[in-house]
Design goal:
Layout lengths: L4 E8 L2 H10 L3 E6 L4 E6 L2 E7 L5 E6 L15 H10 L6 E3 L7 E6 L5 E6 L2
Parallel strand pairs: 1-4, 5-8
Antiparallel strand pairs: 1-5, 2-3, 3-4, 6-7, 7-8
Length: 123
């Protein structure tokens, strides 16, 4: 399976404090919108998402169709195909947003230890 760009998404209590903390570690704002309570930060090839008030805890996030620069790649496994494969493998899907036959969509699963994975396609 081609899962695309990888990042970790962190549920934070204070977006500005978290932004400043990660800036101290060499991260720069790469995307997002502070007025919408989220930022995507980057240090080299490492991406983290900071999300205030959107969810608790942390998630591993994969973006099919994107590279680490959020640039569309020419070939990728569509989120609907990944969803089909995951369900066929017997992995329970916790949440899904897959109304269209192409384009953006997402679903959430958990690994055997309860870690949350978000498969979130934007293209």
């Amino acid at each position: 399976m081609k899962l695309g760009a990888f990042s970790i998404s962190l549920g934070v209590s204070d977006l500005q404090a978290s932004r400043d903390f990660y800036k101290t570690l060499g991260f720069e704002v790469f995307g997002g919108a502070e007025d919408r309570n989220y930022l995507i930060m980057k240090n080299g090839e490492t991406l983290i998402g900071l999300f205030q008030g959107m969810f608790e805890g942390s998630m591993l996030t994969f973006n099919p169709g994107w590279d680490q620069e959020a640039v569309k790649v020419p070939e990728f496994d569509d989120v609907r195909e990944l969803h089909r494969r995951v369900k066929k493998a017997g992995i329970p899907v916790i949440q899904e947003t897959l109304q269209e036959t192409s384009g953006p969509g997402s679903f959430v699963i958990k690994d055997p230890d309860g870690n949350t994975l978000l498969i979130d396609q934007h293209v």
